[in-house]
Amino acid sequence: NLSFVRFPQVMTKFACVVLNHERFVSLVNVIYKVAKKNTQGRRHCIMLDATKTIFHHFKHIIIGIYFGGLVYMFYPIYDYVVNRALTPVSPLIFPFLDDDTIRSFLISTMCNVTAAMVNSFGTVAVSLLFVTFVEAYGSLNALIEDDFRVFDDMWKRGNKNVAQRKAMFRNIMMEIMDAARFNLSINELYSLITTVQIGCCFLSMSTLAFGYLALDYVGGLGACVYFLTELMLFCYIGQLMDNQAERIAMVIFHSDWYLYEVSYQKDLLFALCMVQNLKSINIAGIMPLNFAAGVQVIKNIYSIIMFLLNALE
């Protein structure tokens, strides 16, 4: 039953957050310290843009999840209003309830919708935290990019202040190390959550789509759209992370490193080797979480459904 898939999924997410709450809090503290430290000039604008982007993503995540929830409940309402048929919103069956009566049907629907809302709340909460960390990681990269721009200007202007150059370069290297640690922490905290989320969407969508095609379970179409929304939501956040994982390397590539002294170039080469090993979040340690992974999951669902339908013929 799908409810027995959804509930462990949400509990796994909450368990990951609770058991690793110190690490989640430490990432939040890093974000707070960076925002508090950069309160002037261009760097302040970078932090403001990151904040606006985070709230922009918040809005779209909430709209996307609850749009999927409305689609989930749409067909049973439509079927009752138009055809006067009591179509269950979920295959979950409660004992001592006769779904052929309106009273029992409403009780069953309320229980199913309540369970769905709790599950959706868990998905929204974890997704909002996820996208906050990813965008904060992006703002760290933006600050590194800005520092490289200033450092390049020093060499172009022929700045002879060695102490100032060393301090600036040391700050850049520290920022790169902080961004690398931030990347590693996000990967460690969200690898299991992502794997469980994608696995749940895969199993649920396969079951619901097969139920519609083989057993004419029309009520499952709305739930299938909802799980598709969740799948693409996580793939979207993963794509953002995937893009940011390559950003620092591109910043180093495009810097005027050939103007630097040899000692700086050696340190920069070390930093480049390190950031090239940064990874996006992987699903079960196999494939990166991005839109390509979402398309591959949908293709696998289609292949499984076609195989089962051919086996039934």
Automatic annotation (TrEMBL):
Protein's cellular compartments: Cell membrane
Keywords associated with the record: Cell membrane, Membrane, Olfaction, Receptor, Sensory transduction, Transducer, Transmembrane, Transmembrane helix
Gene Ontology terms for molecular function: odorant binding; olfactory receptor activity
UniProt cross-references to Pfam families, sorted A to Z: 7tm_6
Membrane topology value: Multi-pass membrane protein
GO biological process, one term: signal transduction
PANTHER family on file: ODORANT RECEPTOR, ODORANT RECEPTOR 19A-RELATED
Protein's UniProt name: Odorant receptor 5
Highest taxon listed in the record's lineage: Eukaryota
TM spans (from-to): 61-78, 189-211, 217-237
Primary site of residence: membrane
One GO CC term, this protein: plasma membrane
